[in-house]
Write a structure and sequence with these properties.
This protein has a domain at 49-156: Immunoglobulin-like (Sandwich). 17% of the residues lie in helices and 33% in strands. It has one helix spanning 4-30; strands at 49-55, 59-65, 81-89, 106-110, 114-115, 118-124, 130-139, 152-156. A four-stranded antiparallel sheet has the order 1-2-6-5, with no helix packed on it.
Length: 158
């Protein structure tokens, strides 16, 4: 004859064993050293330097140089376009000089943006009152993004 107490004891042991096995399995699966954080590999070393900007009728004309291309005969070696980052701040509450600027998005411009070692790009931006900041990054043939250019600051007063 089997006692009810022994059946309960067997069930309890089975449940405890299953829980211990589950915890040990979970601990073994989650063990391991995590790798150090790293920046994505940048295969696009070209950078726009001495970036300048000026308003035209309905756009901003951005111009700069790419010293790494000086003396090369190719028109656009590995450059398929650029990303233009833009933001606007109020004249009443401008960011401090040298403070980081938060760019909410970018315009991706594809096509010819270089002439020898000179960068030239027209960006369509609404000319609203405020302080406009621009920054450019070149794009390589595989979509890789190069380092940022210097920041351009244009002020519009109405």
């Amino acid at each position: 004859m089997i006692h009810k107490g022994s059946i309960r004891q067997v069930k309890w042991r089975f449940i405890c064993s299953a829980m211990i096995l589950g915890v040990v399995s979970l601990a073994l699966m989650s063990c391991g050293k995590k790798g150090p954080p790293f920046l994505p590999k940048t295969d696009m070393p070209l950078k726009v330097e001495q970036l300048k900007g000026q308003w035209t009728n309905e756009a901003v004309l951005l111009q700069g140089s790419i010293p790494a291309l000086k003396g090369q005969k190719k028109d656009t070696p590995g450059v398929t376009g650029c990303r233009v980052y833009h933001t606007r701040y109020s004249l009443k509450n401008p960011p401090c000089e040298g403070c980081p600027i938060d760019y909410p998005g970018f315009q991706e411009i594809r096509g010819k943006i270089l002439a020898e070692e000179e960068f030239l790009c027209e960006v369509f931006v609404e000319k609203k009152e405020g302080i406009h900041f621009f920054e450019v990054r070149l794009i390589g043939p595989k979509g890789e993004v190069g380092p940022p250019s210097n920041r351009v600051k244009l002020t519009v007063r109405n």
